Amino acid sequence: MSASVSSSGSSELPDEPQGHETGPPPLETLISHLLAAKRSLSSISHVWRANEIVTAARSTLEDSVVVSARTSFLRTGLNDQLRLLYNVRAEVEQISLRGRSEFAGALKSLDAADARLRKTLGLLRETIVHASFRPEGEEEKSLHDFVDERGVEELHATLKNSIDRTNAAQAELDTSNYAFDDELQSIKKALGTYRATTKLASSRASVSSSSSQSGSNSSIPSLSSMPSMVHSLEMHAQEMANLLESLVRHFDLCVTAVKHTEGGGAAAKSITGDMPAGVISSRGGGPNTIEDDINANLNAPLDPLSDSEYREMVNVIINDAAEAEDVVMEIADRIGEMESVIETLLAQRDSHFAIYTATKEVFTHLSSLASTRLPGYIAQAHSFTAVWHDEHDRIKSGLADLSDLSALYDGFLDAYDGLIIEVARRRQVRHRVEKLLRETRAKLDVFHQEDVAAREAFRVDQGDFLPSDIWPGLSREPMRVEFQRVSGGPLRGVLGDDEAEAEAETQQEEHLPDPLTAGEDLPALPKALVEQALARLQAKSRERERERERERERNVMT
User: Which DSSP helix (H) or strand (E) runs through 281?
Assistant: First the structure.
């Protein structure tokens, strides 16, 4: 207000023409000013509300600071835990992919080796042993009949157990990883809720801030603007208290003026008798009630006033009465501004609380996962690794055994073809021996006949002159040479040298007869069979040479 009175009621008069004096206003005018002053004191409710707002604002700021600190702490831990969690998931996935890739490669090698083995076994079944190799009347047999497949079956059973155990471990790891992925999806959902909450809270806080504070361009909930807003509320409250104090002084002055006016004492008591009780004022620097102040003013004895002092007091009342309405409007404007500011503060506090709640939800989910389920997911990956290492060694061993069996049976096929070639070679040698024997027999017969004829001619010419007992061999025929077939004993590589010599001596002493069964019995093989065996051996030899060449090329490239 433009003018105020001191505790003694003195005040400077407004500028008026010198020497012009006006008479005191009538009692009705003063009473109207008193009534208006009484009505203006209803602004005390705004001051009380301002006090509540300031208290709430300070509490709001404290809560927001605490919640913001907690949120910042959780965010730091949240980022670290998320980074660690995704690293663990990536490592577990890498273990699964590496194991799956190695397992697939091992299965591919097993399938290839098993296919070669089965192909070789099929060739053994298809290859019929020529009847000339077997005893007469025996049922037809294939090379497969000479193979014991129990080793193959046991190897297949071992490999199947390893594959089944690996598949089971892989399935358990996949189930664990699927559950892990579900956990991650749940966390992503919670993070989505967290981001949406943060965005919404930031948007609300930004709208509230822009609507209540000019020049504010904050787009996220921030504590930086809240202290200034609290300070502005405190300034508004203090200013409102000061304005209310001026209204109280104006009211007191009106009461005093009415009491000093003739017939005004009763009116003053009547007007101030129903003043609201319990309304807090900051008058005098301490909390007092307006009712106490009014009662004290009404009950206080009247100080004598001179006419000039009375006129001065009335002039002050008249001047202040014109400004009292402006003061009331200013208090109302300030409380409206404070309501807007506290609304913004509460909105920002709610934003911080909403973000904290969403952050805490994600953090709680992560903490629960890390302490309960995550160790199981990691342990499952280690379990799969241990199982795969064990079974991988068994599969490698089984793969080597399959390759060895395949090589063994391939060698059996090659050996049978070689046997056919060997029989053909031996028959060729037999034919050459027979030819040599026939040629030698013919020559021996010629020599024998010539010797017989010569002996007979000598007997005719000289026999009459030689006594018969001069040499007993004179009249004998020449000796004859006969060939005897002796069955061959075991090769020296089959029996020891001593055993082989003893077997040969026994056969020589027995003088085995000449029939074919007593000699070396060689199967009579068709020429086409021999040619087919020779072609197969040559083809395999070329294939092995090409494989060695490819291996040399790979080594050079490496």
Answer: strand 280-281
Q: How many helices (H) and strands (E) does the chain have?
A: 10, 2
Amino acid (1-letter code) at residue 309: E
How far is it, in rounded angstroms, from Cα 431 to Cα 437?
10
Region of 522 please: left (phi>0), alpha (psi -120 to 50) or beta. beta
Write out pLDDT tens, residues 284-313.
343 345 545 555 555 555 667 666 777 777
Which conformational region is residue 370 in: left (phi greater than 0), alpha (psi within -120 to 50 degrees), or beta?
alpha
Q: What letter does residue 468 receive in the DSSP assignment?
A: T
User: Binning pLDDT at 50, 70 and 90, where does residue 12 land?
Assistant: very low
Q: Do 443 and 153 meet the contact criterion of CB atoms below 8 Å apart?
A: no
Assess contact for 278 and 290: CB atoms under 8 A.
no
pLDDT in tens, 485-510: 887 777 766 545 566 565 555 555 44
24 residue type, one letter: P
More confident residue, 215 or 376: 376
Question: What count of Cα atoms within 13 Å lies in the side-chain half-sphere of residue 529?
Answer: 20
- Token pair, residue 57, equals 């604002």
C-alpha span between 116 and 122 (Å, rounded):
10
Note every long-range contact of 512-515, with CB atoms under 8 Å and residues 24 or more positions apart, other chains counting.
Answer: 512/484, 512/485, 512/486, 512/487, 514/484, 514/485
Three-class secondary structure of residue 46 per DSSP? helix
**Sequential DSSP letters for 307-364:** HHHHHHHHHHHHHHHHHHHHHHHHHHHHHHHHHHHHHHHHHHHHHHHHHHHHHHHHHH
Q: How far is CA 418 from CA 140, 392, 537, in A?
A: 20, 38, 8
